[in-house]
Amino acid sequence: MKPVTLKEIAEQLNISVTTVSKALKDYPDVSKKTKGLVKELAKTLNYKPNTFAVNLRTKESKTIGLIIPVIVHHFFSNVIKGIISQAEKKGYLVIILQSNESYELEKKQIDLLLSQRVDGILISLANGTADFSHLNQIIDQEKPLVMFDKIAKIVKCSKVIIDDRKAAYLATQHLIDIGCKRIAHFRGALLPQNSIDRFLGYKKALLDNNLPYDPSLVYICECGDMSFEEGKKNAKQLLIEHNDVDGIFINTDLVAIGAMTEFNNQGVKIPEDISIVGFSNWFMSSVISPTLTTIDQPGFKMGKTAFKQLYKEIKAIKNEKPKPPKVITLDTALIERESTRK
Amino acid sequence: MKPVTLKEIAEQLNISVTTVSKALKDYPDVSKKTKGLVKELAKTLNYKPNTFAVNLRTKESKTIGLIIPVIVHHFFSNVIKGIISQAEKKGYLVIILQSNESYELEKKQIDLLLSQRVDGILISLANGTADFSHLNQIIDQEKPLVMFDKIAKIVKCSKVIIDDRKAAYLATQHLIDIGCKRIAHFRGALLPQNSIDRFLGYKKALLDNNLPYDPSLVYICECGDMSFEEGKKNAKQLLIEHNDVDGIFINTDLVAIGAMTEFNNQGVKIPEDISIVGFSNWFMSSVISPTLTTIDQPGFKMGKTAFKQLYKEIKAIKNEKPKPPKVITLDTALIERESTRK
DNA sequence: GATTTAACCGAAAACGTTTTCGATTCTTCA
DNA sequence: TGAAGAATCGAAAACGTTTTCGGTTAAATC
Questions:
Q1: Contacts A141 to B, Cβ<8 Å
Q2: pLDDT score for A222
Q3: Cα–Cα distance for residue pair A111/B46, rounded to 1 Å
Q4: Torsion of the alpha carbons at B35, B39, B45 and B49, rounded to the nearest 10
Q5: What is the CATH number of domain A61-161+299-332?
Q6: How far is A141 from chain B (nearest CA, A)?
Q7: What is the dotted CATH code of the domain comprising B60-162+299-332?
Q8: CA–C1' B9–C8 (A)
Q9: DSSP B323
Q10: What digits encode the pLDDT tens for the residues A127-168?
Q11: pLDDT grade for B254, boundaries at 50, 70 and 90
Q12: Pick from A96, A141, A283: which is nearest to B94 by CB?
């Protein structure tokens, strides 16, 4: 059961491989008649071009790489869905790798993708990534690179993000608007830009409203696989250390849900005793009790947009007209639910 | 910035391409000295073998294809995670496609993967798949194929599943054990084997316990993107048509959660008025209120196992010792939670 | 010193495709 | 009728690697 090649079609029709190739690709210098014959035979023999050979010849694989910190994650799996849906439209395949929030793995995986010679790379950084030489390596090879969500400002490539700072400001302002006076923040890991920005948005909202910023009210969580547990842990800690807190802005919904679970267990009423705003709008947030106020983060759209940008850059480089990096900011919105409904 | 090739290394060292290639792959007929020189230069030049050429020569791509009905789905994203974690260990990359529960798309995607010449294919069938010629096409080409979760019994390939019938029996028996007398079932779509098996398990449990089987108590949902809504809709319908039902076994957690939401809205108490058992053990089920009794379905393990099996078959075919198909059944367990705690 | 053996290296073919460029045939028109 | 032009085709090189097999040199053996 050897796969059919151009050669076999050529031999059966007593013409050259060249002509067969050209006929199948509708070159103008092949007669209608031969084109017909070739295409017919190709169909009956179920000819499929050998991608390996095509890739070698054309130097492109119509494949892109995607590195993502975690897969089992409402936001990220929506991003994946957005990416592959868009990629499919353009005839691209997507190789997915999970960095597990590890810088070392991320580095290895980029090496892997580069040696695999994908046409471009999409990445959302691991929490642990502080050094960016592995990313610059991609750019040095003139391979398109687009970062999304968890980005590094310093790297010179296109980015698709939301305005985390503004969104966090909005979330915090909402807590203030409903009357919270002492607002805590469960922030993400220290390095990622988005958790920094969300923290800054929180802080700025406090100060703009003449509320004191108290660093001891800021709790850190890594937001890895253990997000839920971290939320519980931080909530427990908060109740011990600061029983006067009446609102919390939490870096991500899963952590918020962990915290809510702990509060429920301890009989702390939401939103009466403590109001909570999460981040990301996980589906779960709309079905738990009380439902969780949160910031909508458009994962599917972000994936789509990121691929579109990558695609443009792939085309641009192919035509030897590389484009300057572009930063695309998507809209977000506050979703008000029961956890802040006093 | 052309990528480095064997030829360039060869020229710089004044040796042949052959020797360079062999040196890098530690052939015994290359002297230690030249091996040293070659490897060193390869490293300083940052040589990466051109995968396109290697693939063409070796006829394998170290890449597998994965077709899955939906990505944004707790169970399936766990499967994906399992697959790529295991694939990475063996040096394989995974191309992921989403069939969107569409037979047509599934067919196209298989064509795509075959023409991409992946080394093997993993698939969980779409709800709409009733014809299997596209799957047999894979087998005819002697490409390893492993199905998981949503399988077709008739196709002669390896499968990784759980014992859906037994698990459903267990779930239903549990409802009976806690005293339910009139138990409804929200089943999945008509075609997929697993929803058939779960239905059969439900039915058998009823009959074994001398409870009448009433077809009007079986509601269908497609379990696609709208699972949650379908759960709500079916719950609403059930309340209208059968207000004597005191237990429901529901095909999947997301549908169950939709139903619970509807019951909550209508003031129907769970588990007092109606006890509910779901299926799959989505994370969500442990944080909603009341927490949902369900069947644990080991997605991560299923992914790992499916890849392992595929890998074995890839190796076997390579050594021209193809193995007969194997059906692997993974364990499940009933997770008792509040939705059945009377 | 001659012969065998081992150690080391390289030429060349092959994988299947794409594309350039030259060759051939067929039209067309003066 | 002859030449120019159009239409059609194919030879060959190229992409970068792997592997077979034969060749050369050096070491070992008698």
A1: 1, 3
A2: 84
A3: 11
A4: 100
A5: 3.40.50.2300
A6: 7
A7: 3.40.50.2300
A8: 18
A9: P
A10: 989 999 999 999 999 999 999 999 999 999 999 999 999 999
A11: very high
A12: A96
- A198 pLDDT above the threshold of 80: yes
> With an 8 Å Cβ cutoff, is B269 touching chain A?
no
Contacts of A53 in chain B (CB under 8 A): 56
- Which two tokens mark A241? 């250390």
Closest Cβ opposite residue A142 in set B1, B261, B288: B1
Nucleotides of D under 7 A from a protein CB: 7-12, 14-22
Mean pLDDT (chain B) is: 96
| Residue A329 DSSP symbol | E
- For A315 and D29, how far is CA from C1' in angstroms? 67
Phi-psi region at A249: left, alpha or beta (left = phi > 0; alpha = psi -120 to 50)? beta
Task: Residue count of chain A, please give it.
Answer: 342
- Residue A188 identity (one-letter amino acid): G
SS3 at position A101: coil
Domain definitions of chain B by residue range: 6-49, 60-162+299-332, 164-297+334-340
CATH number of the B164-297+334-340 domain? 3.40.50.2300
Q: How far is the CA of A32 from the C1' of C24 (A)?
A: 18
Q: With H, G, I as helix, E, B as strand and everything else as coil, classify residue B161.
A: strand
Question: CA distances (Å), B333 to each of A145, A170, B159, in order?
Answer: 44, 44, 20
Helices and strands (DSSP H and E) totals, chain B: 12, 12
Using the 8-state DSSP alphabet, how is residue B82 labeled?
Answer: H
Q: Do domains A61-161+299-332 and A164-297+334-340 have the same CATH topology?
A: yes
> How far does B327 lie from chain A, in Å, by closest CA?
26
Take residue A149 and report the two structure tokens written for it.
């969500």
Q: What value does the mean pLDDT take over residues B177-188?
A: 97
- Cβ atoms of A324 and A309 within 8 Å: the answer is no
Q: Tell me the residue type at A176.
A: I
